[in-house]
Amino acid sequence: MDTNPGENKPIQVRVFPKRLLQPATAEKVLNEIDQVSGVIRMLINGKNLPRKVTSGPGTGADVNHPDRKVIHVGGCAFELHIIVGEILVEVENECAFEDVRAACERALPFSFEFKRGHYIKRRPTLTDYGKYGFKSKEDERVNLEDERLLGLTDPNAKTDDNICVIGTEKEKEK
Questions:
Q1: How far apart are CA 73 and CA 123, in angstroms?
Q2: How remote is the C-alpha of 45 from its chain's centroid?
Q3: What are the tens digits of pLDDT across the range 30-67?
Q4: What three-state secondary structure class fits 56?
Q5: pLDDT at 148
Q6: Are 26 and 104 in contact (CB under 8 A)?
Q7: What is the dihedral of CA 162, 165, 166, 167, to 10 degrees?
Q8: Number of independent structural domains in the chain
Q9: pLDDT tens digits, residue range 142-162?
């Protein structure tokens, strides 16, 4: 375990609203969090909204759920495949941690839990090595173009189209 006090490790936060979020509320809170400087990555979790009925007498029929909408976060548009139940955020430092709390207080009209912990993996697992491969024999990092993607993909998913990468401030300056 690394115990170097001089090293500034990212802080992970779990925002757990007391209610499931409607698409408009989810978009509002995600945009508020995106405006905080020091946010490294965000992950939303919740109940799945399937496109088709998977079992029963209506198997194969389309499901037209009203919460399956396209939302815009940080200049990136994507369709919600879930009803947002929790938001995981990784930030650079303590200052950004408090700014994320303030952003959630502004955007959420009801109470929520705000906990610090380890929610998104930081190091590659065997699945990541199998999916992305090694960069080199000397380097044990996986072959990812953007290290922020680590831990955000479902290893059992058939496609990776559920990820929206928003440019960093460094990329915007170039």
A1: 26
A2: 8
A3: 999 999 999 998 999 999 998 899 888 989 999 989 99
A4: coil
A5: 63
A6: no
A7: -170
A8: 2
A9: 555 556 666 666 656 666 566
Q: Are residues 16 and 96 in the same domain?
A: yes
Mean of pLDDT over the chain: 81
pLDDT at 62: 92
Length of the chain, in residues: 174
CA 119 – CA 3 distance, rounded (Å): 20
Q: Does residue 65 lie in a domain region?
A: yes
The 3-class secondary structure across 71-90, one letter per residue, is EEECCEEEECCEEEEEEEEE
Q: Above 90 in pLDDT, residue 1?
A: no
β-bridge pairing 39-48 and 76-79: unpaired
Indicate whether 45 and 84 sit together in one domain. yes
Residues 129, 143: Cα–Cα separation, whole Å? 8
Average pLDDT score over residue span 82-104 = 94
Residue ranges making up the domain that contains 99: 8-120
Of 61, 62, 79, the residue nearest 70 (C-alpha): 79
- Closest listed residue to residue 143, CA positions, set 128, 164, 156: 128
Same domain, 22 and 85: yes
Do 105 and 153 lie in one domain? The reply is: no
Nearest to 54 by CA among 45, 62, 46: 62
